[in-house]
Amino acid sequence: MRLRTTVIAALAALLLAGAAAVAGCGTSEPTATGASAPPATAAAPPPRYEEQAVDKLQRNPTAVDPDAGVRTNFDPNAHADTTDPARLPQPRTDAEIRAELRKSGIPSGQQAALTPDGLAVAPLGAPDVVRAVIHAGNQIARLPYRYGGGHQTWIDTAYDCSASISFAFAAAGLLDRPMVSGDLARWGDPGPGRWITIYAHGEHAYMYVAGLRFDTSGLRQTGSRWQTAPRSGAGFTVRHPPGL
């Protein structure tokens, strides 16, 4: 009986020791001396965004430029009252504008200008079609005269009087074929035009464009069809392109 009691007590002691060992497994690791490590402390919460930003600026003071946005050479008079008419920009007078145009060589109003090499410069106020006539006239202004030249083909080496006018008109979209002088005497509207006036009869034709005469007879005088000097219109029929 005593032996049984002793065995039961020994078994109970072994069971208690095993339970204690199982309960302590995984909660701590043995140290070098076999002692258990101190219990782990809870991790500190991460710093807030504002705290991180302040810490970054404290560790990197050059991230903030104390002079940023500061104006140098500040003029206290820059914000002075500009409602005084004397301080406001004044518009240029017509006389000043005309003087500048004369210096630039660009004509104003309705009068074209003539360059030293015999080419015409359209005035600023000229319509696009008038500019096109002048531009085309410049292309053949110094080409020689030849009777019948320019009537068989638009691009030729010489042009007679009516073909010269026809070439300039066709380039501006006013004609679709060359005309002889007699045709030009019947073409368009009667009387002088505002921008272009044709003088024609059965043997000759010339015209004025923005105040300049375009005439093959001028080749003998200056080497260019463009002329500033007028000529008599006696015996010629006066016509003009519609609307011009």
From TrEMBL:
It comes from the Bacteria. The keyword rRNA-binding does not apply. Residues 1-23 form the signal peptide. PROSITE patterns: PROKAR_LIPOPROTEIN. Residues 27-92, 223-244 are annotated as: Disordered. Residues 48-58 have a biased composition (Basic and acidic residues). Keywords: Signal. Transmembrane segments: none annotated. Residues 27-43 have a biased composition (Low complexity). This is Peptidoglycan endopeptidase.
